[in-house]
Amino acid sequence: MASIRALSLIVAAALATSACALFPRGDATVRTAAMPGQLEPIHAAAITRDLAVFWVSSNGCTDKDDLTPIIDRAGDGSTITLRRIDEDTCDRPMADGVEIIWSFEELGLPPGSRVQVNNPYQLPPSI
């Protein structure tokens, strides 16, 4: 649990110092109307040169297909908003949640793009 909190602080610091320019295409969704699903609170997020990594809560059945990244461009920056499309109705809560990864290629982003994350942060529940 302490390692997730430490990672969350590191990721938050990294995100706070990044600015972003994205060019959505491929599997990512470009927002043109109301966003689908529900805004997903995240435990942590990390953006590397070519990966977007999120840690989210799970009742034991959450996988990548249950979530969708929405890419929103404004000026010279872009934002990823992670949305939950399918509810996790399992009853095996995972204390640390699950890690979900999208490559920049999947998101239609060139390597090294700067990305901001628009999701609220939430510490993992105590189980």
TrEMBL record:
<keyword id="KW-0732">Signal</keyword>
<protein>
    <recommendedName>
        <fullName>Lipoprotein</fullName>
    </recommendedName>
</protein>
<feature type="signal peptide">
    <location>
        <begin position="1"/>
        <end position="21"/>
    </location>
</feature>
